[in-house]
Amino acid sequence: MKMLEMRNMFTLKKAILLAFTLLVLYGCVDDSKTSLNENVEIKNPGDDPVNITEEEAIEIALRQAVVDGHKSVVLWEEEPALLRSVYSIKYDRDMLVYFVRMSTPGKLWGAYYYVSTENGELIESTH
Length: 127
Hints:
Blueprint: H1 2-27, H2 54-67, E1 74-75, E2 81-88, E3 93-103, E4 111-116
Antiparallel strand pairs: 1-3, 2-3, 3-4
């Protein structure tokens, strides 16, 4: 008799554990039809206008390098400015920028600046 009670108790514990697990898993299912991001505008960086030239972006970056205290900056010989997409902290989205690279004495990696193609603004990025 005692063995039968233990077996029933063990089966009951299994059933309760299985039911609890199913309830937890079912509660984790998101069957709602609305999305959290339905009101978020997604903007492709490639859609950003290119209102300034590469030369203007280089000029902006060189002026900023002087303001930042860099002495004797030299633009990279191979492609000093590249079009890139980077994440802007200020605008909280990816933006199309000119990536301007230059060498500076005393700084191992040199200096680089992201200049917005839209308005020439320097973009602070997480890159």
